[in-house]
Amino acid sequence: MDSSQLEKLKPQLFALVRTSIKTTRMPYATLLVDKRTGVVIARSYNDSVASYDPSDQTDVVAIRKAKEALEAKDLADMYLFSFFEPTVLSFDIAMFAKITSFAWCISATDAPEHYLITDYSVRVYDRDHPGKIQIMADYAKQEALGLLNDPDIHIPRGYLLGGQGGDA
């Protein structure tokens, strides 16, 4: 995974984000890519609100699709390229699938309405697994943020305990 591969894939990711916005009003999209060939194995966007399943996050759905398409348990030869930084749930599932390379355009703390609800983020994994995880954060960040100018975009915030706002 390098910036030239990401640059080639960026139009596909951004097109998928636009589709997601039209379909779900949410700008979440993911490509799961073969490290060796650069071929997109699975693509998805977030459907968790429509399905009422919080595990239907874009990264998780892409992993499910890839496992099914490849009939594989181990996705170590893949990297995950997301529009937004993966959630901790998505990152856990990716690590369980042996994915260790990640790239995203917008970090959670830079997202409009800042959707992180805890201080724990995927960067803790990088600290806890030195040299074992490859992260390329904030790839094409300004261009990605430019896609979020649509006033109809909805970025759900996670639920906060104690009734302190948020939505799913």
Using brief descriptors, characterize the structure shown:
single chain; 168 residues; alpha/beta; Cytidine Deaminase, domain 2; five-stranded mixed β-sheet; 6 helices; 36% helix; disordered C terminus
Oligomer: single chain
Series of secondary-structure elements, N-terminal to C-terminal:
HEEHHEHEHEH
Residue ranges: pLDDT <50 for 5 or more in a row?
159-168
| Known CATH architecture | 3-Layer(aba) Sandwich
- What is the top-level CATH class? Alpha Beta
The helix count comes to 6
- Strand order in the sheet with the most strands: 2-1-3-4-5
Portion of residues in beta strands equals 15-25%
Mean pLDDT: 82
Topology-level CATH name: Cytidine Deaminase, domain 2
* Helix-strand makeup class: alpha/beta
Please tell me what the overall shape is.
globular
Major beta sheet summary: 5 strands, mixed
Number of domains: 1
| Terminus-to-terminus distance | 32 Å
Q: What level of helicity do the residues show? A: 25-40%
The CATH superfamily turns out to be Cytidine Deaminase, domain 2
Rg (C-alpha, Å): 15 Å
The total strand number stands at 5
Q: Short summary of the structure?
A:
It contains six helices and five strands. It is of the alpha/beta class.
Describe the structure.
The protein is an alpha/beta fold. It has a single domain (3-149), classed as Cytidine Deaminase, domain 2 (3-Layer(aba) Sandwich). Helix content is 36%, strand content 17%. It has 6 helices and 5 strands. The protein has helices at 3-24, 48-51, 58-70, 88-96, 123-128, 141-146, and strands spanning 29-34, 40-45, 78-84, 101-106, 134-136. Strands 2-1-3-4-5 form a 5-stranded mixed beta sheet. Strand 1 (29-34) and strand 2 (40-45) form a beta hairpin. The protein is globular, with a radius of gyration of 15 Å.
